[in-house]
Amino acid sequence: APAPPPARHLFGDPAEVEALRGNLLAWYDRCKRDLPWRALVRGDIEKPGPALLPAVWVSEIMLQQTQVATVIDYYNRWMQKWPTLQALAQASLEEVNELWAGLGYYSRGKRLQEAARKVVSELAGRMPRTAEDLQKLLPGVGRYTAGAIASIAYGQATGVVDGNVIRVLCRLRCIGADSGSPAVIDRLWDMANVLVDRSRPGDFNQALMELGATVCVPKSPLCGECPVKQHCQAWRRKLFGKPAPVPDVEDCGVGDCPLCPPATEPWDSSLGVTNFPRKAAKKPPRAMRTATCVLERRGCHDAPEYLIVQRPSSGLLAGLWEFPSLPLAQDLQEEKEREELADHLQAWMGWPVAAKSLQFIGEVIHIFSHIHQTYVVYSLHLDGDVTPDPALSPSRWVTEDEFHASAVSTAMKKV
Ligand code: SF4
User: Fold this and answer.
1) What is the C-alpha R_g of the chain?
2) Where is the secretion signal located (predicted)?
């Protein structure tokens, strides 16, 4: 078994843990933000009657990769439309995608709805209540979301580790090894489980995340206002310029400690507490080019209409609607791109399409988390009607208003 990490990276003193919990919870009670998902509490969820959708489940799924300010409106609309597990289980994927449109990472909404269906059809409408069962039984619920639901909605004394918690814990305990590495993440989970308050686990976890979101922020943290600064090794190190002395404990040997910064990147005093956390350099996003064609016709009362097609039900942007599109090889000449798109449209519509009839409009860049996507946009006006082969993919003609109300991605709205 690997040796336990040096004590300066742990919370080994029960009295200190107790004091930290008290300081953090007192601050949270005074300063927590008023967020709509905090209004629906444990008592509401456990009332008899139709099983309410745990607010924290919906909010946590929406908050993955998305800012609080953006999520609030989506959250309110979602809970108004589907307040119970049963209501969500009966929704169609189309409705879910329509409400989710613009929030990004669409598989999150789809999996939330699949999980609600599973609870209703296979678990007799009863939500699993421990982190272990939530993670095991519900699609789309990972370790973090399971811990958040179990502690906040059902009061289980279990910790959580998200980006905010990683930052706070790495600073509290001067953890400078790659904070994305499995070894460090495991240590942080151990730490979160030691720290979590036994009587108010949900509030404690929210407090730790809130601290990371509002005080212990990535750049320029507000250490002077921090309720746990007396427990923070990074802050003490900033003040004293060297590791805080810990009595009766071996200090980390430079370069040997699995949690210290690598010997090649020692403490940089100009960075202060933001020396922590550290991350290995990210892989650059993959570059992709996609030709897309806005097909336009005159519909009722001569109003323009546009053809949209539905994407496959799995993969990136699953089930969303888009203008007919074709992924391109990199480094194709413009003429060749145009020809490939014309061939694609021709095969799909069963109509001859000349490459030169496609009018180049411009390029649109959209960054997905791991893809740098360039849409090469063309347009084509049609005189007659076109009904693409429905066996290939579902399609429909929409007005501009209908387009905006459809389940289309932000990238397509840019197009
Ligand atoms: Fe973060 Fe500063 Fe508080 Fe330490 S003292 S936890 S670095 S805000």
Assistant:
1) 26
2) none
Tens digits of per-residue pLDDT, 265-308? Answer: 778 888 999 999 988 777 888 999 999 999 999 887 888 999 99
Q: Which tens digits make up the pLDDT trace of 99-144?
A: 998 888 888 999 999 999 999 999 999 999 999 999 999 998 999 9
Distance 225 CA to ligand 1 centre (A): 9
The minimum-distance atom of ligand 1 relative to the CA of 212 is 1
Task: In whole angstroms, give the CA distance from residue 114 to residue 105.
Answer: 15
At 226, give phi and psi (nearest 5°). -80, 130
- Reported as a single tens digit per residue, the pLDDT across 155-199 is 999 999 999 999 999 999 999 999 999 999 999 999 999 999 999
Separation of alpha carbons 236 and 230, rounded Å? 8
Known catalytic membership, residue 210:
no
Please state which architecture CATH assigns to domain 286-405: Alpha-Beta Complex (3.90)
The ranges assigned to domains in the chain are: 7-229, 286-405
Kind and range of the H or E element at 275? none
Lining ligand 1 with CB less than 6 A are: 168, 171-172, 215-216, 221, 223, 226, 228-229, 232, 234-235, 273
Instruction: Report CA-CA distances (Å) from 122 to 41, 49, 87, 133, 137.
Output: 25, 19, 16, 14, 10
- Predicted TM-score (pTM) of the model is 0.75
